[in-house]
Amino acid sequence: MPGNTFGHTFRITTAGESHGPGNVVIIDGVPPGIEISVEELQVDLDRRRPGQSKIVTQRKEADIPEILSGVFEGRTTGTSLAILIRNEDQRSRDYGNIKDIYRPGHADYTFDAKYGFRDYRGGGRSSARETTVRVAAGVIAKKILQQTCGGRVVGYVTQVGDVHANIPDPGSITLEQVETRSDGTPNIVRCPDEEAADRMIELIDTVRKEQDSIGGAAEIVATGIPAGLGEPVFDKLKADLAKALFSLPAVLGVEYGIGFGCTTMRGTAHNDHFIPGQSPTIITTDSNRHGGMLGGISSGLPIVLRAAVKPTSSLSQEQPTVTKDGEPTTISTKGRHDPCLLPRFIPMAEAMVAITIVDHYLRWKSQTVLDNKEI
Amino acid sequence: MPGNTFGHTFRITTAGESHGPGNVVIIDGVPPGIEISVEELQVDLDRRRPGQSKIVTQRKEADIPEILSGVFEGRTTGTSLAILIRNEDQRSRDYGNIKDIYRPGHADYTFDAKYGFRDYRGGGRSSARETTVRVAAGVIAKKILQQTCGGRVVGYVTQVGDVHANIPDPGSITLEQVETRSDGTPNIVRCPDEEAADRMIELIDTVRKEQDSIGGAAEIVATGIPAGLGEPVFDKLKADLAKALFSLPAVLGVEYGIGFGCTTMRGTAHNDHFIPGQSPTIITTDSNRHGGMLGGISSGLPIVLRAAVKPTSSLSQEQPTVTKDGEPTTISTKGRHDPCLLPRFIPMAEAMVAITIVDHYLRWKSQTVLDNKEI
Amino acid sequence: MPGNTFGHTFRITTAGESHGPGNVVIIDGVPPGIEISVEELQVDLDRRRPGQSKIVTQRKEADIPEILSGVFEGRTTGTSLAILIRNEDQRSRDYGNIKDIYRPGHADYTFDAKYGFRDYRGGGRSSARETTVRVAAGVIAKKILQQTCGGRVVGYVTQVGDVHANIPDPGSITLEQVETRSDGTPNIVRCPDEEAADRMIELIDTVRKEQDSIGGAAEIVATGIPAGLGEPVFDKLKADLAKALFSLPAVLGVEYGIGFGCTTMRGTAHNDHFIPGQSPTIITTDSNRHGGMLGGISSGLPIVLRAAVKPTSSLSQEQPTVTKDGEPTTISTKGRHDPCLLPRFIPMAEAMVAITIVDHYLRWKSQTVLDNKEI
Amino acid sequence: MPGNTFGHTFRITTAGESHGPGNVVIIDGVPPGIEISVEELQVDLDRRRPGQSKIVTQRKEADIPEILSGVFEGRTTGTSLAILIRNEDQRSRDYGNIKDIYRPGHADYTFDAKYGFRDYRGGGRSSARETTVRVAAGVIAKKILQQTCGGRVVGYVTQVGDVHANIPDPGSITLEQVETRSDGTPNIVRCPDEEAADRMIELIDTVRKEQDSIGGAAEIVATGIPAGLGEPVFDKLKADLAKALFSLPAVLGVEYGIGFGCTTMRGTAHNDHFIPGQSPTIITTDSNRHGGMLGGISSGLPIVLRAAVKPTSSLSQEQPTVTKDGEPTTISTKGRHDPCLLPRFIPMAEAMVAITIVDHYLRWKSQTVLDNKEI
Which CDD domains does this chain map to (chains A, B, C, D) (predicted)? Predict the structure, then answer.
């Protein structure tokens, strides 16, 4: 059952619920000597935070991280690093409306079926609030990637409802483009195609007014990742990345490279062609339908993943459901919810991708970089 | 690096290459007392075997399993169970054409980049031949599922190129429908929509004649699985199932339930509605867009997954590529290859899904079924 | 490298240093519905606490636990349970004397050799302070054992220097005997042989006055543990218990049953004889030289382990050593240290033994208790 | 339950029984490019083999290893390496005498209690025959150690009954001394103190003639191991080494350095003193009571472990016991058994120690050897 741990060599373990004292992550396997500060953690936490723009939930949570261990005089020590993010809003509230009623699309019923009862306050452990500490751990993973191989992970929204972004070159998108529009204003929907971004915002605004929600898709791209990461046969990089993204709430599908587009293709059209790379020992391809992974191992090209994210299940309009005794009733989830999960999904997805790649980077180094190169 | 192990409580570890002595799996965590025979293993191995029909590779491999341990007097003992499948064709051959040339779409380059050199004979460890022993392990997983909770896992082909099957009720498809057509002849493409199956076979035949290959998609359905399997937060059942399918060669995408279809939906249309189930303690839903999993935990409804499988990379026609020194050249892969991977993919995918669910079943039992029910 | 996690199915992960903000443990795999309170955690924390008697260190730490997650309305929820124990004394102090000097018998040098630098304040991660949260996790493990199989874990001191206790029947010792003398006063040395206890206290007092320290041994006994726990071949119960005890600071040796006494014995004298047990399906033995484990699997008899604990390395008298540059110097460790580690070692050792047995209990249940008993 | 896997980064998984088809090990995490041959594996297998001298069991087993995967053209490929050792003697035999009777000191009863039944032929999975493949894996671990850091693991017998060897400098003992006496004849008891060896042989011969057996102790020494291996806090090197040795059959106690000798020592006498080492960055100690590990992390000094091994439980003389129904009976184990386990124990113990250290070596490299040394 221990399902609260992710990773083999760079490993995170989390705990915490939506309305308990807080969420905590223990990160094990952090290389020593990495400079890290709470301010750096805060950057991505702010990208994930409620209330950051008009198109996300207006709940207020500051999400201030406290580093409990593993950092001394500003640098990681190599021992386990713990980060605590306290929940601000723990006051007693009336949860009578969800204590005995199963919210459609939520894990209320499956938690009851599994454990016999549940912490019903705001979803308890099934709340997306537990992703706060994943995001904090992701910041550390990104720093390790950057300092070891110059790797970088950037995500952005490619689809909201039927509005699709046009991103001709995923490997070229920068964090700046994701966060800030060309006019210097915040890119609140995190779509670098600004024309599409405008229509996405409009659509989100419409569904919000209609007390509804809308699904979408995100693309996450890792560049600068050396060829050779990923383990045959079960811990293929594609397999661990897929698990990482599917471990996030609301993800119903994951693909990489050409993805589901491969189903209608012929081999002659699908195969990327190898060509000489920028140095004699590096081979590359003239297209990237393989999404940066061949045989589950990184090829050196940009790793490109896409995730399908369902529309928010919580709706302020009435929905039919049953009580835990099976009695028909209706529910409208008060609180303030995201009309579209995608803008806040981006930092969560980046974090999980970065954590997975760092894990594989350290695994790769462990096995294949021998001290005595002659052997 | 140990990437050759899958599962936490029901755990398989594999070894073996395409042209070495053979492939072996060690299965750990098998409950004692399960009756098992090599004949039962052979059934699914025959469904995976080359040469089983005109639309798959015509290579000959009998794939005879030998149980090395863990079974005594026809029953599992509870100790680790090993199965060996020897390779028949180990004779020395001329691999000069692939030793120093990178086959497009294959792992030749990424293995070289990772390890510095590779067993180039037939793909070595990256060959799909390693899935033989996964299929054997899957037979044992299926038996455990059947004997403990009455669970069942069935897969079938839903798409080949642009031919789509129409499967209105995934949970109703039987193994018999997948294997045998209504007229009693073998369902060689493993698509239960017989009209679509005819067109799929025709398409596969066409691409084969054109020395090309074609992609497609498969659906894998698990029924009879109790509500409550899957662990928050990382080992969600959806996450482990996705990893399981992505660990198979050629899989570029995985989705469950409505999958990528959710991206254009509104919450009101997407949420399944809870209704009373067949007994007072069971709740169900009147639709299954959630694919049998909510919050990553099984809901009791059929678990429905889909995988996108790329067109076979090996083609008998010439393809441009480079040598390992980056010199342009061409390659045509002699051997005999599947023009479409889907028909033989089905037993592999069923095996991985069954193995994953048994693992979670045993994990669930461990934590939540206490001896003293009062507590 | 992730070495901060212990256990397979009942799993603890810890973080924290001696003088950082605090120590935290995440416990994964806790069965749902177990009643638990901070008051219960406090009981064993108080048994471990500094300043509890005149023969232990006189440092002051209240060691107040905060449950961060995994408990709702007084009962475990089944999701990951986190406990935080803040360090009280974090004020800036002059560590100049140990920053650049290697304390004899401590991990200062090996941490520097491993990580390149270290948190030198009070030993950082190598301080025994990290065992606070292990003790808290142990309380939960003890409760699970008690509620599932009626199992119990009790430890006591059997040796201090050359003073040996006489414990004819380890399985009969109670927590009460360990904590309280027959006259109702606290058993401050935790040795149930009161005559020996008096001499132990006298010896500890002597070495303390001489600014020295003294080693000793502890016995930990688990009773009520059903036969069948432990996994062939690597995760033998004896192997995991030994690892558990060796993971504690200062432990230089572990044995079970007759232990090192077996080296001079003949088989005829060593083998315990099987005899009928208290019910037709239970077999027992007429002696317990096997310490409750045969083939690494529990036999139903009391599990009896012993650990050798070295004399405290920190001494207030001057000891010769070197600086990190290899320059000869001397050091006297100011602070207040235990002249003998054994009295406070008992709750730590009990915790690790209980955690290990619960892990194996849940593993056993997972594999061998099938729903359908007929198979 | 999966208890048949050992190691985190260098990981072995085994299967096999005493009288089944054979035993198999899968080794995962092997660095690529290591030269290895079956002849090298055979060397240690011959040191473990029955019938090698007059003082061990006279059973005949050739123990010929077959490498199934992971080696190509004489070098490891980096993918999982499997080794199969078939059992020669599989003929049907009359096991009536042990099928329903519990042999004293064996795992017959505990296996029945755990699994409900057992493979009773020669002990099945609880037979020491499973250590064949551990020894084979140990050869590969020793090669990796030798090629990466120049490390070496050597074991020898220090005690048989009350005969103690005098080994003043454990770190200086060579494999040659263990295997060959100064006169060139085989050192059949594997004790480098030849005078003690003579008396050990005499004692073993005496107990054999008396249809009895005798216990003893072994010392295993690893030299050339760099400082810094081992992970705080649970995966201390001492903890994993202890688990490794306790996972071997018949081991009742493990200690390192001064071991249980610490219990009567004072801190002033126990602490080793740091002194400058052979280079400016290396610190050493002027004694090695700490057995090469401080805080569970290697110090660079020889790692010195001792294991207590019980007298063989199988005796050819009659012993009282019960049937599985609890009926009193007697048993004399026919077969041919070792009168003392120690001589054949040495290669098993060396293998487990080497495997553990390689695992930690690769873990250490993964975390602490960053490409960019500046950070």
Answer: Chorismate_synthase
What confidence tens digit (pLDDT) does each residue in D275-294 have?
998 887 789 999 999 999 99
Q: Is B32 on the interface with D (CB under 8 A)?
A: yes
Tell the burial category of A325 from Cβ atoms under 10 Å away from its Cβ (0-12, 13-18, 19+).
exposed
Question: How many residues does this entry show for chain D?
Answer: 375
The verdict on C124 touching D (C-beta cutoff 8 Å) is no
What's the per-residue H, E or C state across B124-144?
HHHCHHHHHHHHHHHHHHHHH
Summarised one tens digit per residue, pLDDT across range C241-299 is: 999 999 999 999 999 999 999 999 999 999 999 999 888 778 999 999 999 999 999 99
- Residues present in chain C in total: 375
Q: Which of D78, D82, D124 sits opposite B16 (nearest CB)?
A: D82
Contact C375 B78 (CB under 8 A): no
Count of pairs with CB atoms under 8 A, one residue in B, one in C? 70
Position with higher pLDDT, A351 vs C333: A351
Euclidean distance between CA atoms C69 and A17, whole angstroms: 6
pLDDT at B344 over 70: yes
A59 is in an annotated binding site: no
DSSP, collapsed to helix, strand or coil, labels residue A147 as helix
Residue C366 annotated as binding site: no
User: Predicted confidence band at A59 (pLDDT cuts at 50, 70, 90)?
Assistant: confident
* Average pLDDT value for chain A: 94
Nearest to D42 by CA among D10, D11, D1, D85: D85
Taking an 8 Å cut-off on Cβ atoms, the answer to whether A263 and B216 are in contact is yes
- Residue B86's CB is within 10 A of a number of other CB atoms, namely 18
Q: Is A311 annotated as a binding residue?
A: yes
∠ at Cα C312 (C308, C313), nearest 5°? 115
Q: To 10 degrees, the CA torsion angle through C267, C270, C275, C278? A: -150
Contact by Cβ (8 Å): D339, D306: no
Task: Tell me the average pLDDT across B142-149.
Answer: 94
Let me know: does B273 contact B46? Beta carbons within 8 Å: no
Residue C74: pLDDT above 60? yes
Which residue of chain C comes nearest to B79, CA vs CA? C232
Q: Which of residues 196-235 of D touch A (CB under 8 A)?
A: 232
Give the whole-angstrom CA distance, residue A225 versus residue B256: 29
Per-residue pLDDT of B117-134, as tens digits, reads: 999 988 899 999 999 999
Rounding to the nearest 10 degrees, give the CA dihedral for residues B40, B44, B49, B52.
100
Test A368 with B247 for CB contact under 8 angstroms. Answer: no
d(CA C365, CA C295): 19
Band (D316; pLDDT cuts 50, 70, 90) = very high
Q: Could you say which of C11, C13, C125 has the minimum Cβ distance to residue A79?
A: C125
Residues contacting residue C47 through CB under 8 Å, at least 6 positions apart: C135, C179, C344, C346, C347
**How many Cβ pairs within 8 Å bridge chains B and D?**
168
Look at residues A27, A26, A31 and name the one whose alpha carbon lies nearest to residue A366: A31
Helix, coil or strand: residue B97: helix
Query: Which domains does chain A carry?
Result: 5-257+292-368 (3.60.150.10)
Is the Cβ of B80 closer than 8 Å to some Cβ of chain D?
yes
Amino acid at A356: T
What is the rounded average pLDDT of the residues A202-230? Answer: 97
User: Which of the residue ranges A36-40, A89-93, A311-315 would you say has the lowest mean pLDDT?
Assistant: A89-93
- Whether residue C251 lies within 8 A of chain D, CB to CB, comes out as yes
pLDDT at C321 over 90: yes
Q: Which two tokens stand for residue D335?
A: 């077969």
Distance (Å, rounded) from C-alpha D246 to C-alpha D307? 8
**pLDDT bracket for residue D92 (50, 70, 90):** low
